[in-house]
Amino acid sequence: MLVGLVLLALVLLTVSFRSPTSGALHSAQGWGAAALRPFQVAAERVARPFGDAYDWAAGLASAKSENEKLRKQLRDATATATANADARQQLAELKRLMHYEGLKSFPNDYRAVNTTVISFPGTFAKQVTIAAGSDDGIALNTPVVTADGLIGHVTNVFPKTAQVTLLTDPSSSVPAIDVTHGVTGLIQRGPQGTFILNRVPKDAVVEKGDLIVTRGTVDRRYPDYYPRGIQVGTVLSASPSDIATFLTVQVTPFAQFDSLDAVAALVPAKRK
User: Fold this and answer.
1) Is residue 54 part of a domain?
2) Which of these, 142, 158, 264, 267, could form a disulfide with 112 (CB 3.0-4.6 Å)?
3) 130 belongs to a structural domain
4) Given this model, what pLDDT does residue 100 score?
């Protein structure tokens, strides 16, 4: 029987190939396809709801998984927000208990007296004169900045003008902090238009590109000229030395000291 079926199949295939578009077999195929078409359509219609049901179930499972993921993220975010809110509340309570009074910081606690430089520093000058003075609220040790960063502080003041000693002066020394790694030091004049962040321990982590800002007052008994947060520059290089006690940190200043024009003197918004 098996051999007979195989032979019959071969005969039908041979006839089909020899008369692909005409002949009795072709007509029989057409009649058969026409006769079976209603059953095919019915089968598709019967099977379609099952396919749709499968797609719906798969989509529902995926949506449930995504929903659970989002719920977890929301729970984590809520927990973090709650912890932060609790920490803020505790900090506020501790400040009240300690009668805490914050130190001045830039720019919130200062207003800018915008003015211009009326004596140009040149290449080697360490001081400039600005066209604003005590009549504008400027006093001794008032910090002076450009739009780029810190340039110095007022060392002599008159009603209409004031003299500013620049950071390039050899006697200048500004407490500063590397806000990227929390390392502190003193900004002092360095070689070839750079500054040095001095007194940085050799084991401190300082990297090229770190942002340097003024540190501000640490002890009220010894107030600093500069409030915390004024931009000074970025770290150019940091390297240890066998003969040096501290890390050698070179800083590129933001301000252009050889082309000073418009500046701002930072006057406390509230005097105490």
Assistant:
1) no
2) 264
3) yes
4) 46
CATH of the domain at 235: 2.40.10.340
- In the chain, where does DSSP find H-type helix? 2-18, 24-98
CA distances from 108 to 35, 40, 102, 105 (A): 88, 79, 12, 6
Cβ-Cβ contacts under 8 Å for 225 (sequence gap 6 or more): 141, 143, 153, 174
Count of the separate structural domains present in the chain: 1
Q: Which two tokens stand for residue 1?
A: 């029987």
**How distant is the alpha carbon of residue 78 from its chain centre?**
23
Flag whether pLDDT at 131 surpasses 90: yes
Quick check: is 100 in a domain?
no
pTM: 0.60
Q: What tokens appear for 190 in the block?
A: 């360095």
Judge whether 249 and 233 are in contact, CB under 8 Å.
no
Whether 59 contacts 46, CB under 8 Å = no
* Residue at token pair 């208990």: 97
pLDDT for residue 68: 81
What CA dihedral angle connects 147, 149, 153 and 159, to 10 degrees? 0
Instruction: Average the pLDDT over each of 156-160, 222-226, 232-236 and give the range with the smallest value.
Output: 222-226
Beta strand pairing status for 231-239 and 211-214?
A: antiparallel
pLDDT tens-place string over residues 244-259: 788 999 999 999 988 8
Q: Determine the structural domain holding residue 197 and report its residue range.
A: 110-268
Identify the residue with better confidence: 126 or 103.
126
Q: Is the pLDDT score of 177 beyond 80?
A: yes
